[in-house]
Automatic annotation (TrEMBL):
GO terms for molecular function: prephenate dehydratase activity. Keywords: Amino-acid biosynthesis, Aromatic amino acid biosynthesis, Lyase, Phenylalanine biosynthesis. InterPro entries: ACT-like_dom_sf (IPR045865), ACT_dom (IPR002912), Preph_deHydtase (IPR001086). Pathway: Amino-acid biosynthesis; L-phenylalanine biosynthesis; phenylpyruvate from prephenate: step 1/1. It comes from the Bacteria. Residues 2-177 form the Prephenate dehydratase domain. The keyword Disulfide bond does not apply. Residues 190-264 form the ACT domain. Its EC number is 4.2.1.51. This is Prephenate dehydratase.
Length: 269
């Protein structure tokens, strides 16, 4: 079975894919992709495929391209993985921090190390993956990449643990192109779409879950891209497909919402 992720070797997505393979004790054919869109597209078009994609970061919040893909593409969540995020500053051998004038990385990595970047007055620019930044290294230019990844390509960090917040975790989803979910899953992700834009939509959703004492561990909104102020809502419940959740879905349907189950899985531990 093919396992798709944002490559190349050494990215946080690669680490998440490696972690998933070890936990499942299954040998997958690893298929690194150049961007997250291609990861999702490959999974959507391949019945014999799994994808590992980042959904949210504890500092930066939701990864919008993945949230939108869950709306627009035929992919579904079948699991989750947590990865601790730790960045290093990689440069040429012998370089000192004082030698560096510019750094390269992906946008989320730049955002998560921006205080460090400003402290050292670095200029910065973006690349498609953290590992791609290693290709830009020169005597005055460095890369911000996952700690431990640069060594795979012959580089050594000149500074470590440079993220702005020590508690930095990214949650990845395990996606497939079908909705044959694990019947024993203890978490459910729903996509809730209002059929009309009117006051109190979110309150109605939250009150319905509260009525059945169902806890929500993730709430997110994404624009419908039809008119300003019109949103989809994601919610993740800490319950599987239970009778109580069926009642919630039935009530929301009666309240003029469209509800789609886009994930059922066991919470990561």
């Amino acid at each position: 079975m093919n396992l798709y992720y944002l490559g190349p070797k050494g990215t946080f997505s690669y680490l998440a894919a490696k972690q998933y393979s070890l936990e499942k004790e299954v040998i997958y054919s690893h298929c690194p992709q150049q961007n997250l869109y291609d990861v999702v597209k490959s999974v959507a078009e391949n019945d014999d495929a799994i994808g590992i994609v980042p959904l949210e970061n504890s500092i930066e919040g939701t990864i919008n391209i993945i949230a939108d893909s869950l709306i627009q593409q035929d992919v579904y969540a079948h699991g989750e993985i947590y990865v601790n995020i730790d960045f290093g500053l990689y440069a040429n051998e012998g370089a000192q921090i004082e030698d560096i004038t510019k750094v390269y990385s992906i946008a989320p990595a730049i955002s998560q190390t921006i205080q460090y970047i400003h402290k050292h007055q670095f200029a910065y620019d973006y690349v498609d993956s953290t590992i791609q930044g290693l290709e830009r290294i020169s005597f005055t230019e460095a890369a911000i990449a996952p700690l431990g990844s640069g060594e795979l390509y012959g580089f050594t960090p000149i500074d470590s643990h440079i993220q702005d917040y020590s508690l930095n975790i990214t949650r990845f989803l395990v996606i497939k192109n079908h909705a044959n979910f694990d019947k024993d899953g203890d978490n459910t992700i729903l996509l809730i779409s209002p059929k009309a834009n009117k006051a109190g939509l979110l309150a109605k959703i939250l009150n319905t879950f509260a009525l059945f004492d169902i806890n929500l561990s993730w709430i997110e909104s994404r624009p419908m891209k039809q008119e300003l102020g019109f949103y989809y809502f994601f919610v993740q419940t800490t319950t599987g497909k239970t009778k109580e959740l069926d009642n919630v879905i039935s009530i929301l349907n009666n309240l003029n919402f469209k509800v789609k189950i886009i994930g059922v899985f066991n919470a990561y531990s």
